[in-house]
Write a structure and sequence with these properties.
With about 250 residues, this protein is α+β, with helices and mostly antiparallel strands. It is about 30% helix and about 25% strand. It is built from six helices and six strands, in the order ββαββββααααα. The protein has a five-stranded mixed β-barrel. The longest helix has 20 residues, at about 210-230. The two termini are about 30 Å apart.
Length: about 250
């Protein structure tokens, strides 16, 4: 099995292939990672892997105004993740390609990356200034009936969007703008739904596109039924609770 070693960026959220990831990077270990990525030629991909942190572990500080508790070098790149960082993370991650890595005057970074391919964590190395991981690529298999399932998911997703019309910041697009390629549909819907991190992680690591779409169809129908039964609540109330930070 061919593997690749990339910088590892843990987050308390899930990145899917094809989805854009904006980051505000404050912690020193992640600043060091971005400084290293900047050494890559502009015409080469600046790649790192984004992995979701398991419940109960530290959340990476990547939002404006958050404190920088890991700035002290003695805390090291695995601070908050225990003696074996591999156990702190979910096993399936997503490679991100950083189109923009901009260093601010205060040494923090503004990053805009896009998810590309799914990978499985084989090992994690904490010996350097930031975490790196040995990763194996996961091929996206179509599975049986992916095309028909994608059509069903799109129909259910449009109904779901209508019920959440008040939460427009979570809305993917109008129906006419939605894609029809099954794997793209599966990832976009997974990213756009109001789901907690473990559920999004389950969708990321589905064995094939059809399985992911089947799971999404059940989730969409269930969530839409719940929203329909609570018509007096504004959408903002319906979206409170455990959701992904994406």
């Amino acid at each position: 099995m061919t593997t690749v070693r990339l910088p590892l960026f843990p987050l308390n959220s899930v990145l899917f292939p094809g989805l854009v990831l904006p980051l505000n990077v404050f912690e020193e270990r992640y600043r060091a990672m971005m400084r290293e990525l900047l050494k890559t030629a502009e015409d080469e991909p600046r790649r790192f892997a984004v992995v979701a942190i398991r419940d109960g572990h530290e959340v990476a500080s990547t939002s404006p105004g958050l404190p920088d508790p890991t700035a002290l070098p003695e805390r090291g790149p695995s601070a908050g993740f225990g003696p074996d960082p591999l156990r702190a993370f979910h096993k399936v991650a997503c490679v991100a390609d950083a189109a923009t890595v901009r260093e601010r005057p205060d040494g923090t970074f503004e990053v805009l990356a896009t998810g590309t391919t799914r990978v499985r964590l084989v090992s994690v190395d904490a010996s350097g200034p930031f975490l790196t991981a040995e990763l194996e690529t996961l091929e996206e298999e179509s599975g049986d009936g992916a095309g028909a399932l994608a059509e069903g998911v799109l129909r259910a997703f449009r109904q779901y969007q209508k019920r959440l019309a008040g939460a427009r910041e979570r809305s993917l697009a109008t129906g006419a703008d939605l894609p029809d390629e099954p794997s793209v549909v599966s990832y976009l819907v997974a990213a756009a739904m109001m789901l907690d991190t473990p559920t999004k992680q389950r969708l990321l690591q589905a064995p094939d596109t059809a399985s992911r779409l089947r799971d999404e169809l059940k989730l969409l129908r269930s969530e839409t039924a719940i929203i329909r039964s609570l018509p007096s609540l504004p959408a903002a109330e319906l979206t409170r609770g455990p959701t992904s930070l994406n």
